[in-house]
Amino acid sequence: MTRGGVNVTDMVTPVEPPPEPPESLTDPRELLLGYLDFYRDAVLRKLDGLPEERLRTSVLPSGWTPLELLNHLAHVETRWLSWGFAAEPVDEPWGDHGPDDRWHVPDGRSAEDVKAAFTAACARSREIVAAARLDDLAATGGRFDGSGPVPSLAWILFHVLQEYARHVGHLDVTRELMDGMIGE
């Protein structure tokens, strides 16, 4: 297959994926949290090695960039776990949405700043989850005001997991288009 006169097969660089959680794992909590961490790491692996210019470049018709996706996922962690489940005050839970309602990274924010925010949001999520049971309901006063159904921690974690799985797939395609890297 060719793209722009270049044999795409020659451009593909396979990457050996890290292991998923053990196949013998049967505890639902450990399995769910293991896959969340697997996908959190996958996002960072997909971005590893891209220079800042490429992190800020879109190769898709929708226009989002890899750095915008990483910023979005940092906010997903915060919206669903810190602000959502724990009802912690959050200055800008929708801070990844730009004026055109697309993902954005604020001007002057470096890739390292976005990565640090992402890893901090993931660390805070892990702390929140460690102190709760899967059947605990989200606290009211943050994202959930009590006027409607309040989700359980299990529901929130599965929602966040599916969000990661979808976006890692987006990054698979984006990275292959950018430099031919494929793999987990």
Topology (SSEs and partners):
Blueprint: E1 2-3, E2 6-7, H1 8-11, E3 13-15, H2 28-47, H3 52-55, H4 66-85, H5 111-130, H6 153-179, E4 181-183
Parallel strand pairs: 3-4
Antiparallel strand pairs: 1-2
Helix pairs in contact: 2-6, 4-5, 4-6
Walk me through this protein's architecture.
The structure is a single chain. By secondary structure, the protein is mainly α. Helices cover 52% and strands 5% of the residues. The chain has 6 helices and 4 strands. It has helices spanning 8-11, 28-47, 52-55, 66-85, 111-130, 153-179, and strands at 2-3, 6-7, 13-15, 181-183. The chain has a two-stranded antiparallel sheet. Helix 2 runs parallel beside helix 6 (153-179) and helix 4 (66-85) runs parallel beside helix 5 (111-130). The protein is globular and about 45 Å long.
Summarize the structure.
InterPro entries: DinB/YfiT-like, MST-like. It comes from Actinomadura fulvescens. Helices cover 52% and strands 5% of the residues.
Which structural class best describes the helix and strand composition?
mainly alpha
Overall shape: it is globular
What is the mean predicted local confidence, pLDDT?
90
**What count of helical segments does DSSP give?**
6
Main beta sheet = 2 strands, antiparallel
CATH 2nd-level architecture? Up-down Bundle
Strand content: 5-15%
- What sequence of helices (H) and strands (E) makes up the elements? EEHEHHHHHE
Q: How far apart, in Å, are the first and last alpha carbons?
A: 22 Å
Task: Give me some keywords for this one.
single chain, 184 residues, mainly alpha, Four Helix Bundle (Hemerythrin (Met), subunit A), two-stranded parallel ribbon, 5% strand, globular, DinB/YfiT-like, MST-like, DinB family protein
